[in-house]
Design a protein that fits this description.
Blueprint: H1 2-17, H2 24-36, E1 46-47, H3 52-61, E2 78-80, H4 85-98, E3 101-105, E4 126-130, E5 137-140, E6 145-149, H5 154-164, E7 168-169, H6 180-186, H7 193-196, E8 203-209, E9 215-216, H8 218-221, H9 223-228, E10 239-246, E11 248-249, E12 254-262, H10 267-277, E13 285-294, E14 302-311, H11 315-325, E15 336-339, H12 341-348, E16 369-377, H13 383-395, E17 401-407, H14 411-414, E18 430-438, H15 443-459, H16 491-502, H17 506-516
Parallel strand pairs: 2-4, 3-4
Antiparallel strand pairs: 1-2, 5-6, 6-10, 7-11, 8-9, 8-10, 12-14, 12-15, 13-14, 13-17, 16-18, 17-18
Helix pairs in contact: 1-4, 2-4
Length: 534
Amino acid sequence: MASAVIFLCFFFFLLCTSHAANDTQANFLNCFLEATGGSSSSPSMIYTPNDTSNFATLYRSSIQNLRFLSSGAETPSFLILPSVAHDAQAAVLCGRLHGVRLRVRSGGHDYEGLSYVSFISTDEPFAVLDLSDLRSIDVDAEARTAWVGAGATVGEVYYHVAAASTTAAFPAGVCTTVGVGGQFSGGGIGSLQRKYGVSADNIVDAELVNAEGELLTRETMGEDLFWAIRGGGAANFGVVVAYKLRLVPVPPQLTLFSVSRTLEEGATRLLHSWQSIAPRVADDLWLRTIALAVGEAPVNRTIQVIFQGLFLGPRRGMLEAINKSFPELGVRAEDCNELSWVETALSLDGHSLNDTSVLLDRRPVYNSSFKGKSDFVRKPISEKAWEGIWEVMMEGEEEPLAMILEPWGGRLWEIEDDAIAFPHRKGNLYNIQYFMRWFETQTEVTERHLTWMRRLYDYMTPHVSSNPRAAYLNYKDIDLGISTEEGRTSYKEASAWGSIYFLHNFEKLAKVKARVDPDNYFWNEQGIPPFAAW
């Protein structure tokens, strides 16, 4: 506590003695180095483009979507790698003092790159606060809790939890290289969500640096802010440096299966049935689908639907559950694998089962560009409508596009939609993620892919939620709208995307923002502004 007081007193001294700066960047750099004990000749954790080799390597190390390297977006003037929370406090206070905004990057999977680029061209510099060195994980197997640095990846969490206990788990996503800082604060859907809810439902504490540079916990930040950072995108309100997770029980043996069906094998009929079945089966069974347009377009392209199931129990229980609720799928004993929880995480992310250390590898699986969008479905889509969707998917001349359908129901329907900021609860049958990946880097190729993605999204309009057409924050989509004036987004303007991501929770989020960051220091093009009724 004494060190925190001394730290803040130092900054109040700087605030009182600073004078008008001729060089914003130099002043910010000197301020940060003084506060963290570095020197201008040997900055150990802050880098500028002048340090061409280190800056470029570190900046690109967490960029998962390569289209932003050639998009013309603005890149940062500083890259900061904090090793302790004190460094993040210094970045915030020096940034506010000298007019340098921060973008917070955990794993670099932001779908629109807003954690490391800016679409607004201004003379004001910005810094990327890369949390990848804040990834310590401390698991208390007896208490069933874990403190996790916000720079850790989902895979690192899975690895350390499994190493501490074979019967403990944490509900999070399938992609193991995603950083927890973004995923958990936006919700965090995954294979355990029907049993235990999303990641954010299982966060019990956090450490956050607010706009005043204070390091707060749940006790000191207030319940409204703690509510907001669980589903509202924590980077809108400050810098979360660590989360305390409530671990959940799993049996020592789980069962995983994956079966594929073509249109000729009745995929359309099965998918139509799946829509009503998957949200209502026993909570121990998660059953998602992935629809793919495969083959060369247009003559040889067809549709393949993959059904993936995870059951919290042995093979016999899986077969009993699936044959009772969905016998027409025809799952056989040989389709099922009995695995530990961590092995199911490896399998779902496409890894072999013999080396869990692969979960510690932060490098992206693909070196590519991609685009994602999302929808929520509240009424089953008819077989005839699916046939029309398949026609659109097969007409595309671009790389195959996937539709990933995640089932709702279970615990997601039991938790109130305003219990935390993540609002997508009862009434939703499933979520759709539209995802397209490509490997060419030319601008015209990127635009062609984006146009094709938008065409399918527009076609889906009558089949998905409406008024508003909801979307999932972690599948960020700037097609929904962006602010074009740095730091001056109005509540009305932000409602274009805020009401879509957060539904009726958006107003409360904006009111929390007004309390904790009234000057909107933590601004981005699709952020939450302070509430004002104008």
